[in-house]
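Bump. Still looking for Flavonoid 3'-monooxygenase structure tokens.
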Amino acid sequence: MEISTVFLLLSTLLSILLVYLFFSANSRSVRNLPPGPWGWPILGNLPQLGDKPHQTLASLARTYGPLFHLRYGVKDVIVTTSSSVASQFLKTFDANFSDRPPSTGADIHTYSYKDMIFVPYGSRWRMLRKLCFVHLFSNKAMHIFRRVREEEMALLVGRLKNTNGELVRLGEEVNVCVADVLGRAILGKRVFGVKGKGAETFKKLIMEMLEVGVFDIGDFIPGIGWLDIQGVVGKITDIHKRYDMFLDDIITEHERSQKDDGDLLSVMIGMKKKKEDLTGEGEMITDNVIKALLGDLFSAGTDTTSSTSEWALAELIRHPDILEHLQGEIDDVVGRDRLVSDTDLPNLPFLQAVVKEVFRLHPPTPLSLPRLASESCEIQGYHIPKNTMLIVNVWAIGRDPDIWTEPLEFRPSRFLPDGDHANIDVKGNDFEVIPFGAGRRICPGMSLGLKMVQFLTATLVHSFNWKLPDGEFPDKLNMEESFGMTLQRVVPLAAHPQPRLSSDAYKSS
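Sorry for the wait, here they are.
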């Protein structure tokens, strides 16, 4: 190694150590931080998180309480595992915690924060959120695209029936359905469920984006980002380049076709051409804004829904009595001569209770997307410094024994009218179950995500009985979790679909 290179590395390490010592001394001068474990020199508590941080943080709460302090590198982090404390952050002090901390990966993926999920709180965020709400998530938009949801659900049923009972990996099949619902609403066409190189390329890109969901140590320790120690930045940059080229082709093709079926991409292209100032502050729709927003919608909207639906079916297979009860309710409302329709869902209270229980035990994002304190504040008697990162452990809140009787048991009855949590919803109003978050930065696609999980769960259990592979037993089904951008199963659910409806019911599929 050349002397100049050695000198550069030593200088970098010395600088890092000095920065760490400065920040550590500064933190010690703030005497009223929440309690928390000691961390490593320079790295702080990062090495202690393990490969399942949501479980590690839940365990730390049993020692340090429901509000505790960590240090990721040189950065302050506050973690809460309590619904009452979370409500203070996301309701009482919501305005102070409405920004996102900067992230190298997010910066690359979102064209320097031109998206809706990671964009700083302000006029651009409001503009993008309104755009998506009006054209995708409002009651009017949900009604317009009802036919799309029903058609794609029928195609899913048809694909499963045509396997003739062969073993299927459910998550993959459901992911195709969800992505094509979004594709038709956003792009005006299917993206996964069609043959061709383009669909396969897009599918691979989305999957790769979701897999790079790890902490990048360079975000927390100044001066070492250029080293890319974990190789995360290199992976993200490579994926982003391919993603960018693919979306450029999508936009160009859409513009050339001059097609406008009311899909979101057509709307955004029209707004781009008009060059309107949408916020009064010079905010306009550009190609990069379009691509960043498309990335948000597909990466956040596909895997969260498909993984939650996979968890739902796994829990129902493990609990045959609950599955039989749910099938009975749907049979009573729908019968066995047709498939479940979108309009049946409000008439299925036990289905809604099942889905709530799935969200409680298996939230799609076990740790909320982090927020950032704009100003210092005091919560629970503790000082929270400016620029502190907030993490809400949604997974731990859903399993809090102080709130839930038998918290590890799958018991949908707790949400029924005579249950002990009958009035709790999952829409951000009740902090005991917040799978979509809460407050200003609540998931904007909550209405569609909730409906899709209900629709998928109802369709899968109504249209088929599910048989595990030979030698596997429901009560022994592997339910181990894998941490990432979404809460995945370590062992994907694979089962044999066995049609249970009359032959007429499958004709539309």
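Residues 1-7 have pLDDT under 50 and may be disordered.

Edit: fixed formatting.
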